[in-house]
Each structure stands twice: as structure tokens, then as C-alpha cells.
Amino acid sequence: MRVGGFRVLCRHLVRSFSLNGNHHHLRTKIHPFFIPPYSTVAEVQPQSSAELIKIMEHRLSAIEHRNAYLQGIINQPETSPTEYSRANKEIQSLSDKMDLICKLRKVEKEIESLKSLVGDCEEDKDMQAMAYEELEQALKEEQNLHNLLLKSLLPKDDADVRDCILEVRAGTGGEEASLFAMDIFKMYERYSQKKGWRFEVVEIADSNMKGFKEASAAISGADVYGKLKFESGVHRVQRVPVTEKSGRVHTSAVSVAILPQADEVDVQLRNEDLRIDTYRSGGSGGQHANTTNSAVRITHIPSGLTVSIQDERSQHMNKAKALKVLCARLYEMERCRAHNSRSKLRSEQIGSGDRSERIRTYNFPQGRVTDHRIGFTHHSISDVMQGESLDYFIDALLLQQEMDAIADFTATSAH
Description:
Blueprint: H1 3-18, H2 50-74, H3 81-120, H4 125-153, E1 164-170, H5 174-195, E2 198-206, E3 212-220, H6 224-228, E4 233-239, E5 250-260, E6 274-279, E7 295-300, E8 305-309, H7 315-342, H8 345-348, E9 358-363, E10 368-371, E11 376-378, H9 381-385, H10 390-414
Parallel strand pairs: 4-9
Antiparallel strand pairs: 1-3, 1-5, 2-3, 4-5, 6-7, 7-8, 9-10, 10-11
Helix pairs in contact: 1-4, 2-3, 3-4
């Protein structure tokens, strides 16, 4: 008898003794093939289709065979140090998948044993009910392992684990757009604080009414870019501006860009490619204003990109910030070029990813925020602006990305 059947038999014996000879039946409703709903991103999928499981099984079998082949290489005495190192490195890269596959194979054997036990004990209703209960739990575990394995097989963006640069710019709408740009910038600052991320202001250019013409920040923490990458685009606001006397609703727009921060190995900046200018910073006055050339403007000559920073009183600090922003922009340019040359991914992903695309509308009179890419609306705009409910949108967008990746996984694997 296999493990699953043996465990049910032991529970049956214990129950028989505890009931002191009374033949009571379980009163819980039995669902022998019940698959539960799940709450995580990958697990929101409905019960895995037979086609998807079949495709995934081919991938899992290939991983098992590859792992066995690599194990054979490292166990051969004649294997060279180079071959050993290469094989061992690949084994390590497969280790997480292999752990899940081993768990899945164990559960599959248990399910087979329990199904057999259910058929063999039709006359013993108590034992059959216990077998059904065990089978239900095993099927839940199998579905969970399918979800985890599927998620491990989906393509990943290596930049997801990076920190990011946030850039917010006022668009159409004059001073109202600048005021909304300030609101959006502070929304992300509050959201970052809520997540325990570090939010460092890089540069703020004030408008006449103390809004933000432009603002940028460096956000650091776990998987920051992966969480915020779908915030890039045009955010539209509909509300009555503070300057409006008649109470008429105006529409303004703000553009948001989320750029993954680049490491030194990602972007090689040569001194001959940079033109660095210093000038006196503007501001509200005071003893330090306009007295030293602390503001820095860096131009990357090959691309024509220009970054100006005057937020700090130190020229060196402004230069360091400008270089960080410049590297992030150059890295994003290279990522976009690589994406476009490899595939049509940008046209297939959620929205176009273009900063000119209108992605979200904040309607203050109606108290709602709508994301146009996924048709999702949240009816507490104040919570969103406080950074409290932004996760509703971020999680929904990540779910949509994963569902699209699963569809693409199925389509490409079927050919």
C-alpha cells in the first residue's frame, strides 16, 4: 500500500477506536475532484486546462532529462574541470525547478494511490470519506505545484529586481497639470514609504503656483522596477482647478516614466562622449542662491540626451545624480532597442508601454480612478492618491502580464 492509502488506513483505525464502536459517518460534504480558487498572481488562473498541463509536462520532462544528463557528467571521473564547472552551474540553475518537480511527482503518486483506495473501499463509507478528504488535499497541492511550476517556466525580465528612476512631467493643462504632477509625484512617494522603499528626490522644477513642471526621484528596494514598470504613460486628471472660478471641470495630463536603474556594467560612459556644463542654479533666493556654479548639465553627445540637475548645493552631488539619471535613460533606450529587434513583444504587452499612451484617468468629481489598459476602476480616489490603494492597479496589471505570458507560452509551445 502506498503512502496516501496507508495514512488513510491509520486515520480510519484511530477514528474507529475513538468512536467506541459507534458507526457515525462524516457530515462534511465530499468533493473528490474539487480544485480551489487561489489568491496569488499565478494562481488566479482557473483550473489548468488539459492542453496547458500537457505542454507543461513536456517542458518538465525535458528538464528532468537534462538534469539527469548533467548529473551523469559531473559523476564521471574523466570529466574535465571546465566541463564539471559548466554542468554544475547549470544544475544549480535548475535546482528550484527540480525541487518543485520532485514534489509534484510525489503528489501524483499519492493521488494515484488514493484514487485506487477510493475504489477499493466502497463498502466502508468512513474509510472512503477519509480517502476522499485526503484526495481533495492532494489535488489542491497538485494544482498549487502546477501553478508554481508554470510561473517558473514563464519568461522573466531581468530588470524587474532593479531599483528605478521615476520621472514625472506636467503635460497639457497649464498650471493645473503642474499641480497634478506634484500630486502624482507625492502619491508615489507615499506608496514607496508604505512599501518600505527608499525614495530619494533627484530634481524638482517648481511651477509658478508651486506645482511641479518636472520632478524625478530614485526609488530603491526589493523588486521596485518590477512593481512600478506599468506606471509609465500618460495619467489624465479631470477635476475643478483651484484657479477655476465657475466650477467647470478641466482635463489635464501628466506623463510618468519608470526607468530601471543601470549598473556600471550595463552602460559604459566614455569621457569623450560627455559634455558637462556648470552654471548657477536658480531658486527662491537666499545666501546660497546664484553664488556658485553648482548646477550641472550633462549631454551625452552620441544620443543627444541631456540631463540637468540643480537640486543640491554641491556640484559633485548634482553631477552624481545627473549621471545616475543619464545611465538609466541610456539603459532603457538599449532595452527598448533590444526588445524591438528580438520580437514584437511591445505590441503584445499590456498597452504599448509608450509614455505617450493614455493609461489612467483620475476623475475627482466622480471619485474614481480607471486604468484603460485593463478596464479596471477603483472608486476611492483619495485612497489611491494617498498611495493606499495603488496596489489594486499594480497587482491587476501584473496579473494581466502573467496571463498574457501564459497565453504566449501555450501558443509558442504548441507549434
